[in-house]
Hints:
This protein is of the alpha/beta class. It has helices spanning 12-21, 32-37, 49-58, 62-70, 80-84, 188-199; strands at residues 2-5, 27-29, 40-43, 75-78, 88-89, 103-107, 118-123, 125-126, 141-146, 148-152, 158-163, 167-174, 177-180. It has one domain (2-199): 3-Layer(aba) Sandwich (Rossmann fold), CATH 3.40.50.
Amino acid sequence: MIAIIDYDAGNLKSVEKALLSLGETPVITRDREQILSADKIILPGVGSFGDAMGRLRQYQLVEIIRRSVERNTPFLGICLGLQLMFERSDESDGVEGLGLLKGEIVKIPDCPGLKIPHMGWNSLNIKPGTRLFKGIENGAYVYFVHSYYLKAEDQQVVAASTEYSAHIHAAVEEKNLFACQFHPEKSGDVGLQILKNFISL
Length: 201
């Protein structure tokens, strides 16, 4: 069973729809036992870092997420979900993230001719041999919507990057932890292949 964590952070239905199209029967839930018993866990999300961490704490999901990760359950963060997996964000001073991986979330710098938030399709520079991008060509395009981006402390966890006013760590992969700053559920066949790769882990 694939659990999509429900913490009132939007974007759940489009992730569910993408998984249904792949023949899966995901469950949107904040039930702690359901999450702990899941075969795979997805943390989607749109909105602000601080508000999202507040809701995860309100629904007592922080400890459940950490326990699931310690059990080696494959875990996928999407967009805000990726950002929450790290330690902190410029968007919300003083708010601790989940700290599953080391790194920080910083604001995309202003650049003449580029709009922020970054909304649209960008190509990925994919690290060879990653499980999340198996069967996907380097340079594949995916869909982004964000104003903040990841600077991972350990470059080894970066599975794909892109350029938009800065060098953006667009996806990470470390043991059972996976995450995408872009939206695979809105990225056509490439995105569906990424989700399929995660499902088949």
